[in-house]
Each structure stands twice: as structure tokens, then as C-alpha cells.
């Protein structure tokens, strides 16, 4: 075994072998893969092997499509069978809600370039003869999907890695990971040590155990996943795979018979007290009692299963994550990477995942926007095995449920609450959750002041309340008070802080003390990695505020670049934050403080220390809704008192409590971007319409790339629809002159402009106001047009009074 390597991959399943394969493709011929037993002996060997490409996001879908591209050619490349069968897939709809879901997915497929088509039940039965059409309203058929043999694929990837120079060591158990000053230095195994500065934890269900060796939390839980294999019954060998999510089951052909499995409502977690050291290449005992629910459902769709001969019931553990998505990317230990938590669709994504992670390691930037899969998206609370289990259990139990926009998970709640949580409950908050925080989406007692007739059609109107409109209008016409304690807050300090932030930010942030700057941090390609405000508190201290869900990601990005003389501190939990916005905001706040809040004394985009009543606050005159107002930050122990002071002062001015849905509606009218939706690491400031915040007369990461991309071929455009009740939710196809040119990034209803609003990237030549556009919403092409933005208060007068 080599004693040193450029990279060590831990885990000989399909994921680890795919990463090793792609690293060698990128020229890394000094790669070592170590596997505790034999290749495929973890979860890989017992995978059902279904490969479906269409997912809920562009990046996930591209990753799956990349897998299929590889599976088509890998066998010929390495001279081994992979067991790839491109037989297509069917997804059935047996309720109106499921048919709506398929219609929405068909729209997505247009934007991904996938040949998905909606077909009637009879056509689905022709493709999959053993099924009955009882209760089926339609189906989605994707001919380029299929299934693959997990072991053959893994061995083929391993052979490709070997040919590229990788060394693969089986029966080599990792016993320790050497970490020195926050960086990986090597790996200890039962056969000796390997010095390296890159370690990839592709340990599957063992990933949490391996992570602990490096002091890294990997929130995965193994669940026992079962599927049935029947005896050959003369079925066609080219049967497409088939899923009936309403019945919780899936099927695929197997040697003239069937494989049938699914996701039961009462899943069984396994290995919670540790996975046995000798659990290699093994299955769990058959659990027919737990499988009964799926068996009964499967017979409803394929009656012949009732009399089919059973070869075996496979019961094997699969690693699931708290949100049902992969865990990929770097960690707080430099050089220690994770590629785990494949949630039973690791075979579908392995080829594309391996390429993505290998490129990320080799080039420093992933080839796709990986926010939904980024290992840094999980906060410290996932160090709790209890919380991780509760969330992962819910993910498995609801795997096939229709997830409506605005859907909120319930497991493990409440966990993180602001000092005013009790007050928000008393006020009738409809709570949502983000990054463990309980946050008010709206306050139902405000509903009578709203307009029920504005309820959006279809899915957009399901998780909705007239209170959203009432809170929006109060923000525009009087004032609203928002609890934003969940916002992620960072303090950057040290002698080199100013110089450091100037190098990371595309805008000039090292300005006078008290100045607030809106800025982005870019990657080397000029893509937007972070998007937030930076406030200079002192010569050597800065305050950054970013979105609730983005704190871990942004912290990791900043820390990964920070020099030794700069401290980067997560201050989120130390401070409560309330947003007070609206035309009456100054009238409400001024009597509570001796500070002069006049426009002349306290200008827009400035910060000051003030006292509000008895509470010391950092007041930032900023807005995410486009109205006069302040964000008020105070130590958490003062939070309840601050809320009560503001609430008492605001009632006579018509102030209401507001939720995050009203904020989103207001920000759409102002054209404020949302990172991870409107702007991502794949989008440059030029494309996103954020060029005003770029200062090319200074050096910063991404500047050279921006100089090459000042005239982009596409731009983010504001679109208003002719039907105000047809609301886009994200990912809908956008059509100009009969051609699909883009997809919606975010959308909603603007209660002041009384229009349905959507944002989408379109060809730059078509991004002119007045250009006719269509957006497909649940199968209907709704006309609209490109609009000049912002739609509300284009001069910005409301925020500067």
C-alpha cells in the first residue's frame, strides 16, 4: 500500500469508486481508495438500482443526467459490463393532486431538456402490462431513465480508476484520521498510514463514524430498506421502471420477474448504537410485518403479485439525511471532504456525483450550484443524534408525499426559538421552520383584513392566507414589526479584517465607520457565492447579516479564506433582531430613543448604537421590503423587552405583526434578489442585474472572470403575468416566440402592484421591458411581459425619507 497519496477516498461503494474514477480522469493519478471489506459490501450491493433523472432542482437533475451519460459508455471504456438498462420510467398519478404534480414536473423537464411526456393510463399499461389502470389518471414517461446493476457498475468504476493510476485497497479499515491545526494530514489504517492532504469520506452508512475520526459531524441515519424479488414470470425484459407514489411503491423488471419495494410510513432506523464492526456484505433479517403495508399496496397496482413466487425479501440498511439530499463537499476541517447520505438514490446519482465532487476537489469550485447538497448547510444542532433521527425519520416516512410549495417539516420542532416566541404564539403566528428556527410565516388574526378573493390558483393557494396581503399592505401604508432573530449574523474582526473583506467582496466595504454596504462575494468564475450586507462597526470590526439558511455556508466560505490575523465569529444566537418598516416607522421609534432619527441625522444605509427604551441596540437603517425603517439588534436577553417596547408604541399607528411571506411579497415588488434562487454560484452580477454593486477599480476574487463577462448572453428579468391569480412557484418554463428560453427562479404576488410577479433568466436580447413572455403554470401557458424593475417605488423615495 502506498504511504502517501494526493487524495485518499474512504469507502469502496459506488460513490467512492465514482470519485476515484473521476479524480483520475482529471489527472490525479496518485489516488488511494481504502475499503474496510470488499467493494460494494456496504449499502451498494443490495441497491435496487433504479435510475431516475428528473429532480426538483436544475443541479440535481443535471447531476443525474450526467450519470446516465456515463453509464451509456462506461462499459465500452473499461471492457466490463455495467448492467445498464435504458428501459425508461413511468410515474403514475392516481389522484388529482398527483396529476398536478406530474404536470408541474413535465414543465420542469422542458427546462432541463428531458424528453418527458404525459401519457394516458392505457398507454402506461401498454408499456408496463402487469399493472392495472384502476384509479390511474395519467402517467409521466421518461424514455431515457432505466436501471443498473450496482455491483457491476461499481467494479467498472473501480477498473476505470485503476487504469487511471488509482490504487484500490480492500480489507483496509481506517482507524484514525490525522488532523493538525484544522487540516487533514493523513489516514491511519490497519495496514499502515497514508500521508495526504485530501481525504474523501464516502463511507455510506459508516460516514458518521468516519467523520467523528476527524471531528466532523455527518448527519446520516441508516434505515432498513426492503424490496421483494419475484420468480421469473415471462414478463418483457424491457419493462420500464414504474413508481406509484400514492401507493408508496416502485417496480422494475428482473429476469422476466419483478423487483418491488417502497417507502413505508413506519420506517425502522438501524445501527443507532453503532454499526457492528463485522457488518460487511450482510443483510438484515426479513421483516415481513413491516413490509406488509407495501405488499398490500403493490397488489392493488399489480394484482399478479398476489400469486407470484418469491425469490427473497431483501432488507438492507441505507443512509438517509435530515432533508433527503446528498451531503457533498468540504467541511470545517480543511482537506476533509464528505460524499455521503445518498438516501437510496445513490446509484442514480453516482456517476454525476463523482464527477461533481472530483472537479470540486481538483479545481476548487463545483461545476454546478450545489447549495441543496452542500455539506455546510447543516448547523450545529445536527450534532444531536436525537434531532437528526427525528428529521431523517420524517424524510423516509414521507418520501413519496406531494411536497407543496411552502411545505413545512414537523419533526423535532420547536428547537430554536427567539426571545419573543411566546409573544408570537399569543399573536396567532403560523410558524414555519428554517435551519431549526421557528419563524412566523404570517399571523392568522390579520386574515380578516386581507382579501380572500386573491387566493392564488392551484398549489400556490394551498399554504396561503389573506393575512399575507394584510401584512404587506400594513408595511406599505403604516408599519409592520417582524421578528428576524433567525437571520445569520457574523462578526469579522482583527487587524487585517478590512483588507481581507475588500479582497472577498465585489463592492467596496471598508468605508467609514457606520457605513452599510450591500455586496456579493464571488468565486473565481465570477459566480455569486454569498450575498449580504456588511456594516463597518469600527476600524477593525465588521458586521455581516445574511439569510437564515445561508449562515453555515457563508461562514464556511469566509473562514476558508481568512488569514491568521482575522477572526470570524458566528454571532447569530447572541443577538435578537427585529425589523420595523413602514411610513410610520420613524414616528413609532423616535419617542423611544434620545437618538435623532431624522433623515439628516440618520441616513439610509447607515448604522448607529442607540438605546430603545431601556434596551441597547445596534440600529441599521436598511430594508428588504422597500420602506423606511430599521433593523434593531440587541443581545438576546433584551429581546423580549425590545419587542414589547416596540409593540406598545406601534399599535396607535396601525402597526401589525408581520411574517416572512409578506417580506417575500414586498421584496418581489422591489426586485431584491434571493440567494440560492435568483442568484447562485452559477450566476454573475452582470447577469443578475447587480452590476451597480461591483467596483472594478479594486482587486477581489472573481474580478478577472467578470472582466471577461461584462456583456452576458442572458439576464435576470422581471416578468408580470396577465392573470394575477396564476402564480409561479419556481422552475416553471419560460417561453418567448414559441421557444423555451429559461425557467422561473422565484415568483409570487405583489399586493401593492396587484400583479403576479416572476423572475427568470432570459436571453439578453429579449430582456427589454414590454417583451411578450409566457410561463407554463400547471400545463397552461399564461401570457405576460418583461417589466421594468423595480415595480414598486423605482426611485427609492420611500426608503430615503
Secondary-structure-based class equals: alpha+beta
Oligomer: single chain
Give average pLDDT, whole number: 97
Q: What is the count of β-strands? A: 39
Total count of helical runs of at least 4 residues: 18
- β content, as a range? 25-35%
Which terms would index this structure?
801 residues, 18 helices, 6-stranded mixed sheet, 25% helix, globular, 9-stranded mixed sheet, alpha+beta
Set out the fold topology.
Layout (H helix, E strand, L loop, with lengths): L6 E4 L3 H12 L5 E4 L15 E2 L6 H21 L10 E5 L2 H17 L4 E3 L1 H7 L10 E5 L3 E2 L2 H14 L3 E3 L4 E7 L2 E7 L2 E4 L3 E3 L5 H7 L7 E10 L10 E4 L4 E6 L2 E6 L6 E2 L17 H14 L8 E11 L6 E4 L5 E5 L5 H18 L21 H13 L23 H6 L2 E6 L2 E7 L22 H12 L2 E4 L4 E6 L3 H8 L11 E7 L5 E11 L2 E6 L4 H11 L5 E4 L4 E7 L3 H5 L17 E6 L2 E6 L8 E7 L3 H12 L5 E3 L1 H11 L14 H4 L14 H5 L6 E8 L11 E4 L2 E12 L4 E9 L8 E6 L2 E8 L14
Can you tell me about this structure?
- By secondary structure, the protein is an alpha+beta fold.
- The protein contains 18 helices and 39 strands.
- The strands form 8 sheets. Strands 4, 5, 6, 13, 14, 15, 16, 17 and 18 form a 9-stranded mixed beta sheet that branches.
- Strand 25 and strand 26 form a beta hairpin.
- Helix 1 (14-25) packs parallel to helix 8 (346-363), helix 2 (58-78) packs across helix 5 and helix 11 (466-477) crosses helix 16.
- The longest helix has 21 residues, at 58-78.
- It is globular.
Amino acid at each position: 500500500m502506498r504511504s502517501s497519496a494526493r487524495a485518499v477516498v474512504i469507502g469502496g461503494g459506488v460513490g467512492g469508486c465514482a470519485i476515484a474514477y473521476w479524480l483520475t480522469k482529471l489527472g490525479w493519478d496518485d489516488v488511494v481508495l481504502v475499503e474496510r471489506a470488499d467493494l460494494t459490501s456496504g449499502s451498494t450491493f443490495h441497491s435496487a438500482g433504479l435510475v431516475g433523472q428528473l429532480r426538483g432542482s436544475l443541479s440535481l437533475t443535471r447531476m443525474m443526467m450526467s450519470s446516465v451519460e456515463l453509464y451509456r459508455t462506461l462499459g465500452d471504456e473499461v471492457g466490463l459490463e455495467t448492467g445498464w438498462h435504458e428501459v425508461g420510467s413511468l410515474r403514475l398519478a392516481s389522484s388529482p393532486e398527483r396529476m398536478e404534480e406530474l404536470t408541474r414536473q413535465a414543465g420542469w423537464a422542458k427546462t432541463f431538456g428531458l424528453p418527458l411526456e404525459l401519457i394516458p393510463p392505457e398507454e402506461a399499461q401498454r408499456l408496463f402490462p402487469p399493472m392495472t389502470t384502476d384509479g390511474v389518471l395519467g402517467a409521466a414517461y421518461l424514455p431515457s431513465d432505466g436501471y443498473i446493476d450496482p455491483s457491476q457498475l461499481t467494479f467498472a468504476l473501480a477498473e476505470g480508476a485503476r487504469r487511471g493510476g488509482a490504487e484500490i485497497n480492500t480489507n483496509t479499515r481506517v482507524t484514525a484520521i490525522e488532523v493538525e491545526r484544522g487540516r487533514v494530514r493523513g489516514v491511519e489504517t490497519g495496514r499502515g498510514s497514508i500521508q495526504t492532504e485530501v481525504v474523501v469520506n464516502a463511507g455510506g452508512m459508516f460516514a458518521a463514524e468516519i467523520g467523528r475520526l476527524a471531528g466532523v459531524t455527518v448527519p446520516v441515519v441508516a434505515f432498513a430498506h426492503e424490496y421483494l424479488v419475484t420468480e421469473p414470470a415471462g414478463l418483457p425484459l424491457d419493462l420500464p421502471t414504474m413508481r406509484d407514489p400514492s401507493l408508496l411503491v416502485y417496480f422494475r423488471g428482473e429476469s422476466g420477474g419483478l423487483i418491488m419495494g417502497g417507502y413505508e410510513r413506519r420506517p425502522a432506523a438501524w445501527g443507532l448504537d453503532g454499526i457492528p464492526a463485522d457488518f460487511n456484505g450482510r443483510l438484515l433479517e426479513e421483516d415481513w410485518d413491516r413490509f406488509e403495508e407495501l405488499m398490500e399496496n403493490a397488489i392493488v397496482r399489480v394484482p399478479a403479485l398476489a400469486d407470484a413466487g418469491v425469490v427473497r425479501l431483501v432488507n438492507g440498511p441505507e443512509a438517509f439525511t435530515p432533508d433527503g439530499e446528498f451531503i457533498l463537499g468540504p467541511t470545517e476541517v480543511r482537506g476533509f471532504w464528505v460524499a455521503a447520505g445518498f438516501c437510496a438514490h445513490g446509484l442514480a446519482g453516482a456517476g454525476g456525483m463523482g464527477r461533481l465532487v472530483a472537479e470540486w476537489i481538483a479545481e476548487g469550485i463545483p461545476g454546478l450550484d450545489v447549495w441543496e447538497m452542500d455539506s455546510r448547510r447543516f448547523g450545529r444542532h445536527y450534532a444531536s443524534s436525537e434531532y437528526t433521527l427525528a428529521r431523517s425519520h420524517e424524510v423516509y416516512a414521507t418520501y413519496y408525499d406531494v411536497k407543496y410549495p411552502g411545505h413545512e417539516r414537523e419533526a423535532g420542532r420547536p428547537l430554536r426559538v427567539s426571545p419573543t416566541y411566546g409573544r408570537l404564539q399569543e399573536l396567532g403566528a403560523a410558524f414555519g421552520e428554517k435551519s431549526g428556527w421557528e419563524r412566523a410565516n404570517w399571523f392568522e388574526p390579520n386574515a380578516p383584513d386581507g382579501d380572500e378573493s386573491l387566493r392564488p390558483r392551484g398549489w400556490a393557494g394551498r399554504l396561503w392566507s389573506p393575512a399575507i396581503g394584510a401584512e404587506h399592505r400594513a408595511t406599505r401604508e403604516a408599519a409592520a414589526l417582524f421578528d428576524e432573530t433567525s437571520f445569520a449574523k457574523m462578526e469579522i474582526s482583527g487587524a487585517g479584517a478590512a483588507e481581507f473583506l475588500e479582497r472577498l467582496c465585489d463592492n467596496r466595504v471598508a468605508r467609514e465607520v457606520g457605513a452599510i454596504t450591500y455586496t456579493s462575494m464571488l468565486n473565481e468564475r465570477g459566480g455569486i457565492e454569498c450575498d449580504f450586507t456588511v456594516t463597518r462597526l469600527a476600524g477593525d470590526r465588521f458586521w455581516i447579516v445574511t439569510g437564515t439558511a445561508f449562515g453555515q455556508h457563508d461562514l464556511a466560505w469566509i473562514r476558508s479564506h481568512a488569514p491568521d490575523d482575522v477572526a470570524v465569529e458566528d454571532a447569530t444566537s447572541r443577538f435578537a433582531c427585529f425589523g420595523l418598516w413602514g411610513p410610520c416607522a420613524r414616528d413609532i421609534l423616535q419617542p423611544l430613543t434620545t437618538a435623532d432619527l431624522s433623515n439628516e441625522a440618520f441616513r439610509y444605509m447607515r448604522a448607529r448604537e442607540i438605546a430603545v427604551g431601556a434596551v441597547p441596540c445596534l440600529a441599521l437603517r436598511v430594508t428588504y421590503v422597500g420602506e423606511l425603517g430599521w433593523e434593531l439588534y440587541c443581545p438576546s436577553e433584551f429581546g423580549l423587552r425590545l419587542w414589547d417596547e416596540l409593540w406598545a408604541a406601534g399599535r396607535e399607528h396601525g402597526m401589525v405583526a408581520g411574517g416572512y411571506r409578506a417580506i417575500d411579497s414586498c421584496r418581489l415588488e422591489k426586485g431584491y434578489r434571493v440567494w440560492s434562487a435568483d442568484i447562485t454560484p452559477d450566476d454573475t452580477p452582470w447577469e443578475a442585474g447587480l452590476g451597480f454593486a461591483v467596483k472594478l477599480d479594486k482587486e477581489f476574487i472573481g474580478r478577472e472572470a467578470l472582466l471577461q463577462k461584462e456583456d452576458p448572453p442572458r439576464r435576470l428579468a422581471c416578468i408580470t403575468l396577465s392573470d394575477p391569480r396564476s402564480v409561479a412557484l419556481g422552475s416553471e418554463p419560460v417561453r418567448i416566440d414559441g421557444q423555451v428560453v429559461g425557467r422561473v427562479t422565484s415568483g409570487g404576488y405583489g399586493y401593492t402592484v396587484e400583479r403576479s410577479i416572476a423572475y427568470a433568466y432570459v436571453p439578453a436580447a429579449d430582456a427589454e421591458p414590454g417583451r411578450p413572455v409566457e410561463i407554463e403554470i400547471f400545463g397552461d401557458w399564461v401570457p405576460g411581459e418583461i417589466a421594468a424593475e423595480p415595480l414598486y417605488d423605482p426611485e427609492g423615495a420611500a426608503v430615503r425619507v
